Amino acid sequence: MARRGSVIKKVGLSGVAWAIGFLLFFPILWTILTSFKSELDAFSYPPKFLVFDWTWENYEVIQQRSDYIGFAVNSLILSLGSSLLALLFAVPAAWAFAFAPGRRRKDTLMWILSTKMMPPVGALIPIYLIFRDTHMLDTRTGLILVLMLMNLPILVWMLYSYFKEIPEEIVEASRLDGAGLWQEIIFVLLPMAVPGIASTLLLNIILAWNEAFWTLNLTTTEAAPLTAFIASYSSPEGLFWAKLSAASTAAIAPILILGWFAQKQLVRGLTFGAVK
Amino acid sequence: MGRVTLQNLAKQFGDVVVIPDASLDIPHGEFVAFVGPSGCGKSTLLRLIAGLEDASGGKILIDGVDMAHTPPARRGLAMVFQSYALYPHMSVRGNIAFGLRMARMPPDQIAARVEGAAKMLNLTDYLERKPRHLSGGQRQRVAIGRAIVREPKCFLFDEPLSNLDAALRVQMRLELMQLHQSLDATMIYVTHDQIEAMTMADRIVVLNHGRIEQQGAPLELYHRPQSLFVAGFIGSPRMNFITGAAAAKCGATTLGIRPEHILLEPLAAAATATAMPQSPPIWPEGIAGKIALVEHSGADSYLHVDSEMGRLVVRCDGDYQGGVGRPVSLWPHSAKLHKFDQHGMSMNHATQG
Ligand SMILES: Nc1ncnc2c1ncn2[C@@H]1O[C@H](COP(=O)(O)OP(=O)(O)OP(=O)(O)O)[C@@H](O)[C@H]1O
Ligand SMILES: [Mg+2]
To answer: A273 touching B, CB under 8 A?
Structure first.
């Protein structure tokens, strides 16, 4: 009796979970469906769910009207470049916090995180002016720098929490074995932290890919990534739902696919400390 | 060479003074054990010598050169940790070779040394395995192998055997002693297990709250403890302590007598006549008591006796038949009596030389 009760409970819970999952996913699904409709079908009421004339037309139009590949390449360069660059700074910082703590470790960590709490608009004007005067507006270099700085706190925190899981005695053993600072980091620390570093990198690529505030404000054409590409379709000249949907779908597809393939790694990395 | 000298070494964490002032000279080739209760600063002292902690004051001379502020890599020491601290992502070979690779030794020489160490430690069949596929004893051997290939001046061990089971511990103890004989290197060995210290060490350093309470050869500490603390720490089972009127009669605050230095009555008559004829008896009639508990360890039996002097532990023959509740009379070996004053310091040297 108790057993049957628990089975029913399980089925019920699974049902609820699936329902919530579907609800969360529905807007994305709707966007994808709409991207295959004609503009007329996209507007029709009551809305057509699956029965309509499926068409690739919107995708053809957006590739013709604007260079999707160009934007995608920018997105790729910006997200990869900023994440790798950030890693370069975050590893030594996290090492210092984990294995050579000073008296103000807690305060410094909190301060680093607190920079994430400031609304970015607050820094827009100074940064815009600096970029204008140093001719970095609409350049990939400039944007990589900004995105790197934006994600650095999260990287430092994540890496710090992974490094802290590594028994300090192993690091100390390498010091007695004659390893210098860089040898200790490269031969001992990094190989042991690979899962953590991989998921940190992945999360940051996703964050940088989706970042819209700075990319929209600091670029026009040359360095503009997919976020700018989507934005260009929410046009003032009337609503083209189907084209906007096609643009959105094309913009999120790469990161969605990457996320899908990497989700195991991502979950493993994110729960590294909790589950072990 | 591997001579380690500590001069007024001090360490504090913030406001907490862990090592107030330690001075110690360890000549080349000696096997020294640091013992003491948990939290007395044994590991801290070892880590200071290793360079893993920064000294707050004082000097650490290694072969006459002050290295108190030299990074661990350049002190020429090797350490074996309680947790083994092997590199999990490297094979056994990689673990043992790591220190040599860091020293930029040519690969063929590294290979030769690793093979040599592996042979010595029975690890030849496991060289390509990762540490997580090894047993505790094998991991410990890898950790030792990692230390010996570097041919350090001095080995540091921090409770290296405490994660092993009892049988393996005894075996590794012997292997370490053999290693010490064949390597001719200085070894500093931290343990809270006084039997390990007694059996392995040339010299024992007893620590109490970060101070060196007493140091000396194992038997010297056993026979001539300078304080109550050392007397209670060295020897197993623990020394019996008697306070009150009986102690006052001897002019002491506390009397100490080891379980192996008390005789049981049937033998007592003969023993008092022969073994200790000159010793002035404090208890001419013996101490009367009742057996409260018997521990049989095979070779010996330990009787816990409730007497007018409190609970006393007595060692007697392994075949001892008497059971709980039996009245006995105890005859302490007067020459083996330790007397301590009100500060817990030994009075024996003053009276007996
Ligand atoms: N990093 C630290 N910060 C503050 N106090 C510390 C630190 N490391 C050690 N201590 C303190 O120093 C004292 C000695 O510690 P230590 O580890 O040397 O003891 P131990 O003799 O090795 O004990 P055990 O036998 O349990 O290993 C302890 O009271 C401990 O709390
Ligand atoms: Mg310790």
So the answer is: no
Q: What's the CATH code of the domain at B193?
A: 3.40.50.300
B chain contacts of residue A179, beta-carbon cutoff 8 Å: 73, 98, 102
- Write out the residue range of the structural domain in which residue A201 sits: 66-270
Check whether residue B256 and residue B317 sit in a common domain: yes
Domains in chain A: how many in total?
1
Tell me whether residues A178 and B73 touch, CB distance under 8 A: yes
Q: Residue A100: what pLDDT?
A: 85
**What does the pLDDT average to over B31-39?**
94
Rounded-to-integer distance, Cα A269 and Cα A259, Å: 13
Lateral strand order in the sheet of B338-340: B240-243, B254-257, B338-340
From residue B129, alpha-carbon distances to A191, B121, B124 in Å are 17, 15, 10
Q: Does residue B120 sit in the same domain as residue B267?
A: no
Across the interface, whether the CB atoms of B71 and A175 are under 8 A apart is answered yes
Task: Indicate the residue type of B90.
Answer: M
Q: Are residues B271 and B216 in the same domain?
A: no
State whether B203 and B326 are in the same domain: no
Is B160's pLDDT higher than 60? yes
Convert the pLDDT of each residue in A119-149 to its tens digit: 888 889 999 999 999 998 999 999 999 999 9
Residue whose Cα lies nearest atom 22 of ligand 1: it is B43
- Residue A75 CA to residue A144 CA, distance in Å, equals 10
Q: How many domains, chain B? A: 2
Q: How big is the CA angle at B315 (ends B314 and B320), to the nearest 5 degrees?
A: 105
**CATH number of the domain where residue B255 is located:** 2.40.50.140
> How many residues does the structure list for chain B?
353
A159/A92 Cα distance (integer angstroms): 10
Residues B8 and B47 in one domain: yes
| Residue A248 and residue A231 in contact, taking contact as beta carbons nearer than 8 Å | no
Structural domain harbouring B333: 238-352
Q: Is residue A15 part of a domain?
A: no
For residues B275 and B336, state if they share a domain: yes
* B-chain residue closest to A99, CA distance: B52
Pocket of ligand 1 (CB under 6 A): B 13, 16, 18, 36, 38-44, 192
- Tens-place pLDDT, residues B244-270: 888 888 888 999 999 999 888 755 555
Residues facing residue B9 across a β-bridge: B22
